[in-house]
């Protein structure tokens, strides 16, 4: 065999090998439905969290897919989601954080002071809800699925009363129409939008 033939057959073997490898890689199970561009990390330990754990459902909505990919919560300012978010917040959070997230046993969530500055962004807030923080702030991934968490987050952002410049979750158009939350504003059951009314 000449040297050049030898190289040819060697590269044929290599090509076959890498084709087989590519097949093997394709056959691997997906990393999970999140197809995530974003790694969600525990607020306290910094460990990457598995978003497949916890309450089933609420993982294949356009909002959750967008959020896992971009960190952008498209429920912000959607009144149908705010209506749901309020109800979920009152069930799961207000006992410790206050009716208006003004703070009680847990800290206020309606101003621009955060114990964990990552909570200024929705990815950080989601991570805190998912994995918890210290002491009485346990993980909430058993009572809320990811879609419901986005609704709660939208409501918490809606309760905000601080300066608009610190409202990093709003886009420029939303910043222009921002008004601090006033008590007594609720959204009717038939409010149109992306979020269906919660089951009763
Ligand atoms: C049993 C009481 C309790 C419940 C219920 C509870 N929290 Fe908390 N939460 C706390 C306490 C206490 C802290 C402070 C923990 C710390 O500093 O690590 C906290 C901290 C937080 C923080 C961090 C705030 C910051 O300044 O960085 C966020 C965000 C938060 N909670 C959101 C929620 C949401 C949303 C819910 C409902 C899904 C909820 N909590 C339910 C007690 C609670």
Automatic annotation (TrEMBL):
Pfam families cross-referenced by the UniProt entry: Cytochrome_CBB3 (PF13442)
Main location: periplasm
Subcellular localization: Periplasm
Entry keywords, A to Z: Electron transport, Heme, Iron, Metal-binding, Methanol utilization, Periplasm, Signal, Transport
Amino acids binding heme c: 93, 96-97
A Gene Ontology cellular-component term: periplasmic space
Cleavable signal peptide: 1-27
Domain Cytochrome c span(s) in chain numbering: 80-160
GO molecular function: electron transfer activity; heme binding; iron ion binding
Post-translational modification: Binds 1 heme c group covalently per subunit.
GO biological process, one term: methanol metabolic process
UniProt function note: Electron acceptor for MDH. Acts in methanol oxidation.
Protein name: Cytochrome c-L
């Amino acid at each position: 065999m000449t040297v050049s033939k030898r190289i040819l057959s060697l590269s044929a073997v290599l090509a076959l090998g890498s084709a087989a490898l590519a097949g093997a890689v394709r056959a691997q199970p997906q990393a999970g439905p999140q197809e995530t561009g974003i790694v969600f990390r525990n607020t306290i330990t910094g460990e990457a969290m598995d978003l497949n754990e916890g309450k089933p459902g609420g993982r294949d909505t356009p909002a959750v897919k967008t959020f896992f990919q971009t960190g952008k919560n498209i429920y912000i300012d959607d009144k149908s989601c705010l209506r749901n978010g309020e109800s979920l917040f009152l069930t799961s959070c207000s006992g410790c954080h206050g009716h208006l997230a003004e703070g009680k046993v847990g800290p206020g969530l309606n101003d621009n002071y955060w114990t964990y500055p990552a909570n200024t962004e929705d990815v950080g807030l989601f991570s805190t809800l998912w994995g918890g923080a210290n002491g009485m702030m346990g993980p909430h991934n058993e009572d809320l699925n990811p879609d419901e968490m986005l609704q709660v987050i939208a409501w918490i952002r809606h309760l905000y009363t601080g300066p608009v410049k610190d409202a990093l979750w709003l886009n420029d158009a939303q910043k222009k129409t921002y008004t601090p939350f006033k008590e007594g504003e609720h959204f009717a059951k038939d409010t149109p939008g992306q979020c269906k009314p919660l089951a009763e």
